[in-house]
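The material for today's practical consists of a large collection of protein records. Read left to right, the backbone structure tokens trace the chain's path through space. An example says more than a description, so a record of this kind follows:
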Amino acid sequence: MMIRVNPEVQNALDNNQPVVALESTIISHGMPYPQNVKTALAVEAILRERGVIPATIGIIDGVGVVGMTPEEIEEFGKRQGIIKVSRRDLPVIMSKKLWGATTVATTMIFAAKAGIEVFVTGGIGGVHRGAQETFDISADLQELAHTNVSVVCAGAKAILDLPLTLEYLETFGVPVLGYKTEELAAFYTRTSGLKLDYKMDSEKEIAEAIVAKREMGLNGGVLIANPIPEEYAMNKEEMDKAINAAIDEMNKMGVHGKESTPFLLAKIKELTGGKSLDSNIQLVFNNAKVGAEIAKEICLLKR
């Protein structure tokens, strides 16, 4: 068995009830224990309060679990040495029966296999700064190009090259929809200066666009950029300074590949005195609220 869907999740899917997928990298690599578990369960609670079934996805003993139990999430948060798993890692992690934390890309893969349309995360990966030389581009972007899952996020992580990330998404035909914004959200901050093609004023409008894409048989994801709430947004100048300092240190230490994002996020947390982590948690909560309403609207359109 390569995939196990929680019976509660399967029952909701079978009965056209809203389900939202959640990733597990934020638990194992995003923040320390016990804050990671507390945050993961709080996001699930936000979804449940809105009548939506949460499906936190992770790999346990080589099986993709869609809808981890609170006990499994607790173990995930405490366990040392859980591997961050992207598409290329899946065959090895699963064949060796290991534990793995799903990135945006792998969460999308399992969500699509289970039939879950909406996935809520913090920020997607993208084109890294200096990618013209390093070719360091997150597998998340290719997954968005090919896998039929809609991703609600606070834009791409601010540590990335945001203009090139947007260009890449355009090249591969991924619709990027701004929720009540005309600009790409930049994770910790609400604005990036990068204009989006489509501003959507309601979750219903977004759901209609997703359903239209599916009915046309156009493969690939939809990206919904939902800015962090004003009261939790960080000062752009302060963030830019911290990001640049973190990138300089990463380059000096020779950190690259899938280790770069956890390194940078940890360094930025240190440089901002923990404020960036608080912002990160709040933007995930906010994305869960919007993702819940989109999932509900899609179910209504399918009736």
